[in-house]
Automatic annotation (TrEMBL):
Keyword Transmembrane: yes
Protein localization: Membrane
Annotated APCDD1 domain residues: 1-150
Predominant localisation class: membrane
InterPro entries tied to this protein: APCDD1 (IPR042425), APCDD1_dom (IPR029405)
GO cellular component annotations of the record: membrane
Name by which UniProt lists this protein: APCDD1 domain-containing protein
Keywords, ordered alphabetically: Glycoprotein, Membrane, Signal, Transmembrane
Keyword rRNA processing: no
Bilayer topology term: Single-pass membrane protein
PANTHER family linked: ADENOMATOSIS POLYPOSIS COLI DOWN-REGULATED 1, PROTEIN APCDD1-LIKE
Amino acid sequence: ALQHYYSDSECHIPTYSLVIRGKLRLHQASWITRGATEAEHHLHKVGMVIHSQKAIHHLSTRLPFSCLGLKAGGHLVPHRFYELYNAKAEKDCLGALGFTMMELELLRVETHHHPHSRPAQELFLGDVHTDWEERVHHRPTGYQEPLQNAM
């Protein structure tokens, strides 16, 4: 998966992106949210690519140098890949970013049939708490805006 973070609400100015690898295991239908499936995620690796100098300054205050593989006095470089999480190497620097994938714990896929066109599929992911401190503990009961299958 890819997650992109922006410094503006219109999503025109990218700050950094996360490259996420892992597995998703579907469980049973949700007892709380009608039409949803509960799921469990397991992360394998998470890396970050920083897109701007402003983001470098902001992230360097939040992430320890050791998390980024830098020695004291080292500098972050835009468009370079930095590993933040590796399950095999027992490296976990995601807490400093407030990163979770809790939105993958509640899923729904809808297919819409339109006359004279191919069916359109939408993926609904669980809602994310707006308070960064609460994101780690939040269990979704609603959805974000759906993602559309472009294929």
